[in-house]
Amino acid sequence: KAGVTQTPRYLIKTRGQQVTLSCSPISGHRSVSWYQQTPGQGLQFLFEYFSETQRNKGNFPGRFSGRQFSNSRSEMNVSTLELGDSALYLCASGTPGSQETQYFGPGTRLLVL
Amino acid sequence: GENVEQHPSTLSVQEGDSAVIKCTYSDSASNYFPWYKQELGKGPQLIIDIRSNVGEKKDQRIAVTLNKTAKHFSLHITETQPEDSAVYFCAARTGRRALTFGSGTRLQVQP
Questions:
Q1: How many C-beta atoms lie closer than 10 Å to residue B65's C-beta?
Q2: Can you give the pLDDT at residue A95?
Q3: Which A residues, 59 through 78, put their C-beta within 8 Å of a C-beta on chain B?
Q4: Is there a cis peptide before residue B8, judged by omega within 30 degrees of 0?
Q5: Which of A35, A67, B22, B89, by CA, is between 20 and 30 Å from B100?
Q6: Distance between CA B77 and CA B55 in Å, rounded?
Q7: Are the beta carbons of A42 and B104 separated by less than 8 Å?
């Protein structure tokens, strides 16, 4: 079974631009969570989607948004990029059922100049 | 919200020795505790997890123990090998809330 895939793997943007990242979960998984990883703040939760609905949300500004499609694929968008948004953005898909286990993709490394 | 503290931040062991990483959590209602291994340039990989109704779980050279009373859990790696070198993260979750991660431990296994 294929793992979680994320595209693109690397991205360079300038301040003020916006960016869209994509995540395809493991086949059969219906929940997708997004995390931001930085050396200073570690792994921080952004949001989680399940069956196209946002189920949980972390403490990030409204510039960070996401959505999930009917095939469980998810996208996250960051508008008006700031230098501090440079990070590894990780997507994790969750196994179905009440005892959910999360599996991570390789991440998208975003550099904001 | 949940807070997870992880120690040590770096750990260096000789090949063949054991390594222990410890985490404490703040929410007594937390019921799921996974451990992830992250190698350079890769996403975190789940290596073992434990739920609150179990005190210990073992998978070959890796084991995790959970002390609900003290609110701490530990990862034990025996007979370490150079390929165990990576950053290890603990995490905790309450119900269907998001995972809260520890700050990570960089493990270096010296050949």
A1: 17
A2: 82
A3: none
A4: yes
A5: A67
A6: 17
A7: yes
H or E segment at A98? none
CB nearest to A102's CB, from B42, B51, B99? B99
Query: What's the token pair of residue A15?
Result: 């301040």
Task: Classify B78 in phi/psi space as left (phi over 0), alpha (psi -120 to 50) or beta.
Answer: beta
Tokens describing residue A108: 């998208």
To the nearest whole number, what is the mean pLDDT of chain A? Answer: 94
Taking the C-alpha atoms of residue B51 and residue B7, their distance in angstroms, rounded to an integer, is: 21
Pairwise CA distance, residues A33 & A94, whole Å: 8
pLDDT of residue B53: 85
Residue B96 confidence class, pLDDT cut points 50, 70, 90: confident
